[in-house]
Amino acid sequence: MVTQSPEVAGFTWIIGDSPKLHLLATFILLAGIRLIARLTQRYICNLPPGPRGLPLIGDVIHIADQEWLASPQRRDDYGEVMYISALGTGMLIINSQRVAVDLLEKRSTIYSSRPHYISAGDFMTKNLSFTLTPHGDLLRHFRRVVAEGFSKSAVQQFHPIQNREAIVLALALIKSPSTLENHFHRHAWSIMLSVDYHLPPVESKDDLYEIEGHVRRFLQEIHPGTRLVEYFPWLRYVPNRFAKWKRNSQYWFVQDSHMFQRLLGKVVDDLANGIDRPSFGATIIKTQSKHGLSELEQAWLAGDTLAAGGETTSTTLHWWILAMLVYPNVQARAHAELDEVVGRDHPPTFADVPFLPYIRAMVKETVRWAPTVPLGVPHASTVDDQYEGMFIPKGTVCLQNMRVLNFDPEVFGSNAAEFDPSRYLDEKGQVKVLMRGREEGHVSFGFGRRVCPGRHVAEGTLAIDFATLLWAMRFERPEGSWGELDVRTLVQSGLTAHPVPFECKVVPRFTEAETLLNEGLSMYE
Ligand code: HEM
């Protein structure tokens, strides 16, 4: 049930109940006097400052992301949708699967665009970034190519890469468990570079300098509140000389285009020399006559899938380790399954995965439970619409409150907030379909025409990672750790959210594990 008219829900939420405070705070916010606005925000509205201290909707979303908004309590407080209107941008925050499906899937012709970003879209990526591409022909072409290159059957060509990298990760964790996050990072980017361009694994952080720089700049540009031009579009016409942001964005478009063209160029050269190795880049080039994308569009398409897959996968692994520490009984059950199905004389391979239902259920449960992209990637509507008595204006930005949607007790039961892979198993212990028409069993991969095209790659990586790591080791809290681990707080970094840092001890499960991992690795050299 939608309990409040959107406007009322929005403003009650931002500023509080008092009409005087509302007027005062609105005036000061709009006046844009940064210092006064920040004080107002802090002491009158009681909101902490945003990442850049800008008193715009960015701040609201910033704090909301982290804890407040992602609490299932929000649905009880505000109903299935909340609407915020600030500086002319309408924002719909969706708190129910029913509404998300009604709008983003059943009305996907209206709700499949992206918000228009002047800096990140028009200048920094010239609207070639797949993730920001508005609804239209280019999006259709992009989606057709990814549907082919990342289909359920096509992603099997990446299994050897994923299997090898899972072993490398396991060995790295055994050798130096203290830098868990760095290992996940290197691992996820290695897989993506290989999936996209068949490049060798990343050796050091320097190899990631350019691509990480691109992702960081991109996420910063689209973060609400970073660029005033997004709220005052006439600023785009300020001459370059007086607009550093514009000069920078134009500069980075050229640099990033070079990087993506160089990366894809290697695949072009290989194919020209008769070397046809599995990669998404190779699929793009070989299907060019079907999709008709230009060289630059192809380079950006591959580059964008690279950028979209690295951080999300590495963050998911980080949340998963936290779950392993908080739920040791789940870890023990996975160990038992691996001992029974795989045994202890070789590390798991993809051939084992179909016989590991608990591990496969754990993949679903991790992606459901871990709010990697807590508000989803925003969709935007392209025409005015009416929904259950509400008027939703054209251009409304639709955020999906993932933790609330994935913790819906009507779908996932009363223990929805717990990490319990067995919710995905039937009475025979086999993986069951929990949500009709949604094989993955959660909504973390998004909706409708924009659903994550890399989901089969991600699921493959997670399945073999979980199997290999749990086969070889146990994750424990170090002796002397005290207090409960924090599974609730979200540490925001761009669109993704990490858990609060925690310590973890890695214990090999049996003495031969390391030797067998090394032997397993030699099969992929
Ligand atoms: C666990 C890991 C991942 C999660 C949780 C995730 C989640 C998401 C979400 C929520 C969206 C937005 C969907 C929407 O707008 O409704 C998305 C889009 C996207 N994802 Fe993923 N993703 C993951 C891994 C990957 C991987 C491995 C790749 C590449 C192989 C990838 C490529 C993309 C691309 C290109 C888009 C943009 C699609 C579009 O705008 O139409 N993702 N992802």
Structural overview:
This protein has helices at residues 6-15, 19-31, 34-44, 57-68, 73-78, 97-106, 118-124, 137-149, 159-175, 180-197, 209-222, 244-272, 280-286, 288-291, 295-326, 328-341, 357-369, 402-406, 409-412, 455-472, 513-522, and strands spanning 81-86, 89-94, 379-380, 385-387, 390-392, 397-400, 473-476, 491-493, 496-498, 505-508. The chain is of the alpha+beta class. A four-stranded mixed sheet has the order 1-2-6-3. Helix 9 packs antiparallel against helix 21 (513-522). It is globular and about 65 Å long. The N and C termini lie far apart (57 Å). 47% of the residues are buried. The model is unreliable at 1-18 and 47-66 (pLDDT under 50). The structure holds protoporphyrin IX containing FE.
